[in-house]
Write a structure and sequence with these properties.
This protein has 18 helices and no strands. By secondary structure, it is mainly α. It is globular, with a radius of gyration of 21 Å.
Length: about 400
């Protein structure tokens, strides 16, 4: 007779097999339909989750789910950072910084007012909800832009901002949470905490990125070159944990690590072509598996009973969030950037490519776990925001970019 630990291991092995098999099938369907795969992953998760077929059940607060969420999102961020070009990013840096800081505050401010009036929430709970969903999600955006070849500087601006604005959203969320739980608001303290998260994440990512590039691409000392693919896994975990250990943004650290490694040639490092291709293939496969598992599990954790309680008033909030707050944010932050000289077509695309996903869902789950007042309402509206942006904005991105003349020539 097998012991309990073996039974648990078999249970998780079965879940993993179901998730990956489902992911491969719907991934092929997504390729055939030419839609971002995260859209079908989310729908597939809903289908095989407890609300429909009940093939899998993975509680959002479980250790396994949190491990998948943290590592999967981290690796997707690393992959996004590795695809950036410092040369291109330099021309849109002002827009990225403004969107990742001021932009989150603008989105949260407008959405918070809507949440107060549509949902009759107290002001503090309304703005807490807005803070949770204010940041865009790199785990959603990066796969979309990997599959849809949009003008390079626009792609890099959207991806970079989505990686950097998580720190602002998290700080705003935890600041308001502190007020709700009896703490005192301190502007100086919040700014200091934000600075620590950003600077610590940047430094940790840069250090780990340089070390990784040195060990796998240095002309003399690249003794880990043959293990370059595995090195990316180890360093993603190390960069995240190092930054988190000093109360900084782990997600920012892994994104910066990817950006440094992806631009290693600018630091004087150059990998042999065959090793570079092998590492690239490994990164693509690992990132694909990560987003399969993350979004299928996210869909499987939908509580339709909870969402149904607030669906109509919640949709009013989401309407303001998507069609008023986010566009206002873009025009407020991008128009002043005279270096980038954004065209109206690019600005319209920026307004629409503002998906919400894994990070806001994780913050909402945290509030539920702490039993914060109005946490159920916040979790419900957060899922509506995730579903609306992924199911509406992501599938229409290619069509919009094509109509605006922003698709790159892939011939």
């Amino acid at each position: 007779m097998e012991n309990a630990s073996v039974e648990v291991a078999k249970h998780w092995l079965f879940i993993l097999a179901i998730v990956l098999t489902t992911g491969m099938v719907v991934g092929r369907i997504a390729q055939f339909l030419r839609v971002p795969d995260v859209v079908l992953f989310l729908l597939a998760g809903i289908a095989i989750g407890p609300s429909v077929l009940s093939w899998i059940s993975v509680p959002s607060e479980s250790t396994v789910n949190q491990l998948i969420l943290v590592f999967g999102a981290s690796y997707i961020l690393f992959d996004g950072g590795a695809s950036l070009s410092f040369r291109v990013l330099k021309s849109v840096g002002i827009t990225v910084v403004l969107l990742a800081t001021l932009g989150v505050l603008v989105t949260a401010g407008v959405t918070g007012v809507a949440a107060h009036f549509f949902l009759s929430l107290p002001w503090i709970s309304a703005f807490l909800l807005a803070a949770v969903i204010a940041s865009t999600d790199p785990a959603t955006i990066i796969p979309v832009f990997k599959q849809i070849k949009i003008r390079e500087r626009l792609t890099q601006a959207v991806i970079s901002e989505s990686a950097f604005n998580d720190a602002t959203g998290a700080i705003l969320t935890f600041t308001l949470l502190g007020v709700i739980t009896g703490g005192n608001f301190s502007l100086a303290g919040s700014l200091a905490q934000f600075s620590l998260m950003v600077i610590g994440g940047l430094v940790a990512g840069a250090v780990f990125g340089y070390l990784a590039a040195f060990l796998i691409a240095h002309e003399k000392y690249s003794f880990l070159m043959e293990f370059a693919p595995l090195t990316t896994v180890v360093v993603v975990a190390g960069a995240y944990l190092a930054a988190d250990g000093i109360n900084s943004s782990g997600f920012m650290a892994v994104f910066v690590f990817g950006a440094v490694l992806g631009n290693a040639d600018m630091l004087g490092f150059k990998m042999k072509k065959d090793y570079q291709e092998r590492m690239h293939e490994f990164i693509q496969v690992t990132a694909l598996a990560s987003r399969m598992i993350i979004f299928i599990l996210l869909g499987s954790q939908v509580d339709f009973g909870l969402v149904g309680q607030y669906v109509w008033t919640g949709l009013g909030v989401i309407f303001v969030f998507m069609l008023i707050a986010r566009p206002l944010t873009v025009f407020t932050c991008a128009l002043p950037d005279r270096i980038a000289k954004w065209t109206w077509q690019e600005l319209l695309c920026l307004c629409w490519t503002r998906e919400t996903g894994v990070i806001p869902a994780a913050l909402a789950g945290l509030l539920l776990g702490q039993k914060i007042a109005d946490a159920k309402v916040i979790a419900s509206i957060t899922f509506l925001a995730v579903a609306a942006t992924i199911l509406v904005q992501a599938p229409t991105t290619r069509f919009l970019a094509q109509r605006l003349g922003l698709l790159e020539d892939t011939k």
